[in-house]
Design a protein that fits this description.
heterodimer; A: mainly alpha; MetI-like fold; 11 helices; 0% strand; B: D-Maltodextrin-Binding Protein, domain 2; D-Maltodextrin-Binding Protein, domain 2; 2 domains; 10 strands
Amino acid sequence: MSWQPLLDGLREAARLIETGDREVIEITIRSLQTASLGTLMAAIVGLPLGVLIGMRSFRGKRTVKIVFNSLVGIPTVSLGLLLYILLSHSGPLGFLDILYTVPGIAVGEAILVIPIIVSFVASAIESKDIQLRDLVRTLGASELETSIAILREAYSGVSLAVVSSFNRAFAELGIAMMIGANIRGVTRVLTTAISLQSAMGEIGLSLALSFILIAVVLTLNFLISFLQRGG
Amino acid sequence: MKQRNILIIAVVVVIALIGTSWYMLRPNQKENLIVSTTTSLYETGFLDVLKAGFEAKYPNYNVSFISQGTGLAIETAKRGDADMIMVHDPNAELAFLNGSYGVDRKIIAYNFFIIVGPQSDPAGIKGLAPLDALRKIAAAGPNGSALWVSRGDNSGTYSKEKALWKAADLNLTQIKGQRISGTNNPWYIEAGAGMTATLQLSNQKGAYTLSDIASFLKNSKEGNIQLVNLVQGGKEMLNVYSAIAVNPQKVTQAKFETAILFIKFLVSDEGQNLFGTFGAQDYGQAVFKPWITTYKTNSDPTLIQWVKEYAFFNGTECPDLYRYKADDLFS
């Protein structure tokens, strides 16, 4: 009797996938869009930053690292709220007009996962032998070339950072809800749809969407791992 | 080999980047309207019906509903993040108008709140008048024979609940502090959640709660709750929904013309018909009564009088001072 809702949810998930429900496809694609765009933006900012922190030694380095490590766990709803205040039309960044848009959610998610990228990359680099860095430098590499070489060596750490960031962005709710507001056809994503459906008491549908979300994350991660192993 | 993988990943990333940039930069052909509104309208699914109806008639428009609860809906509109509001709290609406944030208020629909509770009805309130029912519950609570769940947020429903306790001469602050005798548990439980969640919590706990009829019918039908409708009707339980456009003179980003177009749709025969037919098939009764239709046909004079007493300001739904470029909206 009590397992019934879960079974119903699984059955509903299978049905939605099978019939290719248009709205489910739409929100899944949108989740992928926000998460990948957000991760991309975060990588552009976070990779150089992570390399910088990882390679150099400077005063306060430990503090900086601790701050980034802590920010990895920032509550998404708080960050979402903060960004909402900034991006609201009456807020300082209101002129950007990205509230209630997909790019807006992507920006929020990027900010969310930058600490992940910075932390993971910095520690991946630090675990590389310091002699490697000096070796590359003595071979006449510029700062940029050195960084790229180090990143290639620390590849597994970097890919872990990027994949983890994507996972976090894809599955988060707070930012998509605060900045996107779950507007049907415009900013509704998997997580906000799940939240809405359960608020509406549609347990079966929200479970189904949850299973689909997990399935997508697992599939993507397997795919990425498979690609890497191929090399 | 690693090169190949990097190449594949790079290609995927580039495609994603191009795809998303195209998506972001494509010219948005449609006029956008953002309406901030209550959870009770949103959770019943009625807003999807309104949206479909409006966009069928005006295909160049895109209506987005943001449901947050009356209090937050008003805040969002004040910030310029919405172009109009649809809410059900006359006091808050008056403050919105007084603060020059809103203009052209139109009452669009009404229904009733009800008190629901467990079938066993331990406090024995079935069929009583609303205020008497509350008094009985307040008497039964401290000795553990009745529980009450409140929305506990700044929704229109919570405002109504507070007003009812006050009208029954009961001190809500005191009630919140009371504990069931012999325990440290309050009998008045604050959910801090939307209507569906509050109903589900009441269901789980076998408690009484105030609900709008639409949310109750929907959740009952779906089998989410086994609560029953115990107290209904009466002037005190009137629930009136209004639409107010954001004042473009004060909030310059507000899309005023679009908002007025939508409000005109809401009060048109077509819009009123959507109100009047929603739920008829699923629940055997229309869950939102169309106000304009009722008013024009004078089909329920007592009710019209009640609405005027409850939701009119100075004898009108929208004082002249708060009318702006309203055309024939108030004729």
